[in-house]
């Protein structure tokens, strides 16, 4: 009877002893995008086409770490002339600052799902805290690769002039930028 009780206790505690899982971000399904004011007349939207990174998620402990790198030369407004302008020293200055990074932690778990990402954005050589709201987060078995696939949609805002990117400020451009990230990651083998 004691061995049955011990076996039941071990089985019940197994999920609590689960190890953290590392997920490699899928660059074909991960696109940070942004929205920024253009003279109060319209909103310019762009995205970055090249990203890399990983997420370490411990579902049992309700914790997670995120580490993302963005290739700033991969900026894409859907307009070649604007892409070239964004790479210049007046905006992203990609020759001097070729990458941006975000390092943070998943927090506010409800029913096993994180509700926010709290961390530091390094952009244009400046590191500042930026919090992102997790709009959706889901993990499923990948039907072909037979490993767990997790995806999320996150959003937040920051002021670009706090990162030394103040082009247009003298002309009345608002400095707030909305950052949206669609992301998918596959559990490491």
Describe the structure.
Helix content is 11%, strand content 51%. The chain has 189 residues and is mainly beta. The protein has a single domain, classed as Beta Barrel (Lipocalin). It has an eight-stranded antiparallel beta barrel with strand order 1-4-5-7-8-9-10-11. The radius of gyration is 20 Å and the shape is elongated.
SSE topology:
Blueprint: H1 2-13, E1 21-25, E2 31-38, E3 42-48, E4 51-58, E5 63-71, E6 75-76, H2 80-87, E7 99-107, E8 116-123, E9 126-141, E10 148-159, E11 176-187
Antiparallel strand pairs: 1-4, 1-11, 2-3, 2-11, 3-6, 4-5, 5-7, 7-8, 8-9, 9-10, 10-11
Identify the notable features of this structure and list them briefly.
Lipocalin; disordered N terminus; 189 residues; 8-stranded antiparallel barrel; mainly beta; 11 strands
Gist of the model:
By secondary structure, this protein is mainly beta.
| Overall pLDDT level | 91
- The parts where pLDDT drops under 50 for at least 5 residues are 1-16
Q: What fraction, in percent, of the residue positions are helical?
A: 10-25%
User: What structural category arises from helix and sheet content?
Assistant: mainly beta
Write out the strand line-up for the largest beta sheet, numbering strands in chain order. Answer: 1-4-5-7-8-9-10-11
Looking at the structure, the CATH topology is: Lipocalin
β content, as a range?
over 45%
Instruction: Output the CATH homologous superfamily.
Output: Lipid/polyisoprenoid-binding, YceI-like
Q: From the coordinates shown, what is the CATH architecture?
A: Beta Barrel
Whole-number total of structural domains: 1
Q: How many strands? A: 11
The shape, in one word, is elongated
* Cα radius of gyration in angstroms: 20 Å
Terminal CA distance reads 39 Å
